[in-house]
Amino acid sequence: MKADESRAGRKIVAIATSTGGPKALQELIPLLPANLNAPVLIVQHMPEGFTKALADRLDTLSQIAVKEAQEGDVLENGHGFLARGGRHMNVVKIGTRHLIHYTDEPPREGVKPCANFMYESLADCGYDEVVCAVLTGMGADGTAGILNLMRKKRVTVLAQNEETCVVYGMPRSIVLAGLTRRTMSLEQIAQEITKNVGVN
């Protein structure tokens, strides 16, 4: 086994965003290499019916394959899974595989999908480390989920800087909670994700 193969499947990327998110994602996701050594989960606050068009757009622009996540989808490295509007996206581990599982709890933080569900579901996953990126958005979604996740997993937290955010709410909440000391541009976040999880 090569050294890089021994790390395969050990890390996962989980992105949360809201207001200004579609534009931010269209800048960030295309910067990730096709051979990224991790799956990419994305929660964008959007109503049902709008997320498929965004996923299709990201897929067209990006080197990684992006889709609106469906129930039972198996997570794969170099693939992006965008949460469907109107449901909470979770990850469940069945055997050696990780699958998308949707739940229908009421909105949390006033939103559905809520990134806190995604982050908390990763606490019981088989990945050793979760790279969390919190981008532009109103409110504080992501903070509680990441705090809960950190009790069980090694976590790297990246937050978009105020200068490039449409609304500096969600990243500000991350900073105020002490989850990261620095904020960065979308280009820097893409570089940090790639550097952290590596490529195949």
Short description:
With 200 residues, the chain is of the alpha/beta class.
Any overview of this molecule?
Mean pLDDT is 95; it is low at 1-9. The protein has 200 residues and is an alpha/beta fold. The protein is globular. The longest helix is centred in the last third of the chain and has 12 residues, at 186-197. The strands form 2 sheets. A 7-stranded parallel sheet has the order 3-4-2-1-7-8-9, with helices on both faces. A two-stranded antiparallel ribbon has the order 5-6. The chain has helices spanning 3-6, 21-28, 51-61, 115-121, 143-149, 170-176, 186-197; strands spanning 11-17, 40-44, 65-68, 79-82, 88-94, 97-103, 129-134, 154-160, 183-184. Helix 4 packs parallel to helix 5 (143-149). The protein starts with a helix and ends with a helix.
SSE topology sketch:
Elements: H1 3-6, E1 11-17, H2 21-28, E2 40-44, H3 51-61, E3 65-68, E4 79-82, E5 88-94, E6 97-103, H4 115-121, E7 129-134, H5 143-149, E8 154-160, H6 170-176, E9 183-184, H7 186-197
Parallel strand pairs: 1-2, 1-7, 2-4, 3-4, 7-8, 8-9
Antiparallel strand pairs: 5-6
How would a crystallographer describe the biggest sheet? 7 strands, parallel
Rg estimate, integer Å: 15 Å
The quaternary organization reads as single chain
Task: Give me the side-by-side strand order of the main sheet.
Answer: 3-4-2-1-7-8-9
Q: Which class best fits the helix and strand makeup?
A: alpha/beta
| Order of SSEs | HEHEHEEEEHEHEHEH
Mean pLDDT: 95
Tell me the number of strands. Answer: 9
Principal-axis shape equals globular
Number of helices: 7
Low-confidence regions: 1-9
Q: What share of the residues does DSSP label as strand, in percent?
A: 15-25%
Task: Compute the separation of the termini in Å.
Answer: 13 Å
Secondary structure: helix percent: 25-40%
